[in-house]
Specification:
Residues 154-247 form the SseB protein N-terminal domain. It comes from Blautia hansenii DSM 20583. This is SseB protein N-terminal domain-containing protein. The protein is 32% helix and 27% strand. It is α+β, with helices and mostly antiparallel strands. The chain folds into two domains: 3-106, Trna Endonuclease, Chain: A, domain 1, CATH 3.40.1350.90; 119-255, no CATH class. Strands 1, 2, 3, 4, 5, 6 and 7 form a seven-stranded mixed sheet that branches.
């Protein structure tokens, strides 16, 4: 690594704040797949004005984007969380200059291989990334016929969903193990869906009051743990909010031979 890059990395790490391009469609950083390198990028900026300028062509394509300020005290959590989203690259914007850096050059990737398998945290970066791309496109404010990449993106999400494990929220009531309550969320039509989560960070965002415990469940067994009033599941309701009705869940299991 040359000295110029080292100085830039140190500058990024020690700034008081940076600004990140944010997707209102997923409530996560806006992720861009580079057309040449195919790196999955998140863009950060040294000031809000440069972000707003860079966001204009993205917003012109009817992507709902905004800028968020990330303070230095939150840097470690921000950059580490990008690993859980499947992001591998950060593009730093300084006025008219852009520099792409590997995420690992900014913050070390957590290594859980030294832990026993049963103690390793649940991570689903492939599912997170494919769902982010799908939702960014699905919620783009254009006619459906213009979303030509949507079928391919949906296929990738489906393939990742069926092979994933999830965290299920439960609240224990009393001493008996079977005496539990399961939270649910409602959509705009009042339909009930059971929330499930791709990782501990998504579970934490939902469990702000700390009253729920997390249980691990495979997609294959998901229908067995659905509460009777639920019409399906909603994956990561506090971020990309992907709804899967029961009939869709059954169809996916049949489609992928489960």
């Amino acid at each position: 690594m040359d000295n110029v890059k080292k100085e830039l990395i140190q500058k990024i790490q020690t700034r008081e704040e940076v600004f990140a391009l944010f997707s209102r469609a997923t409530r996560q950083p806006f992720v861009i797949c580079d057309a040449e390198s195919f790196n999955d990028q998140v863009w950060i900026f040294e000031n809000q004005e440069d972000l707003e300028k860079a966001a204009q062509p993205i917003a012109a394509e009817k992507n709902a984007v905004a800028g968020i300020k990330v303070e230095n005290k939150s840097f470690l959590n921000f950059y580490t969380t990008l690993y859980t989203l499947g992001v591998n690259s950060v593009v730093y914007h300084e006025k008219d200059k852009t520099t792409e850096l590997e995420l690992e050059e900014i913050v070390k990737k957590p290594d859980f291989s030294v832990l026993p398998e049963e103690k390793r945290p649940l991570l689903n970066p492939q599912l997170q990334l494919s769902a982010i791309y799908f939702m960014q496109e699905f919620r783009r404010d254009v006619e459906m016929e213009e979303k030509k990449s949507l079928p391919e993106l949906e296929e990738e999400v489906a393939a990742n969903v069926v092979k994933s494990k999830f965290l299920l929220a439960v609240e224990k009531k009393g001493e008996e193990e079977k005496n539990v309550q399961v939270p649910y969320v409602k959509n705009q039509n009042g339909d009930v869906f059971q929330p499930v989560f791709t990782d501990a960070e998504e579970f934490r965002r939902f469990n702000k009051e700390g009253k729920f415990q997390a249980l691990l469940v495979t997609f294959e067994n998901m229908e067995k743990v659905l509460i009777p009033i639920a019409k399906g599941i909603v994956i990561n309701p506090n971020s990309f909010n992907l709804i899967l009705p029961k009939e869709k869940m059954s169809a996916l299991k049949q489609r992928f031979g489960m």
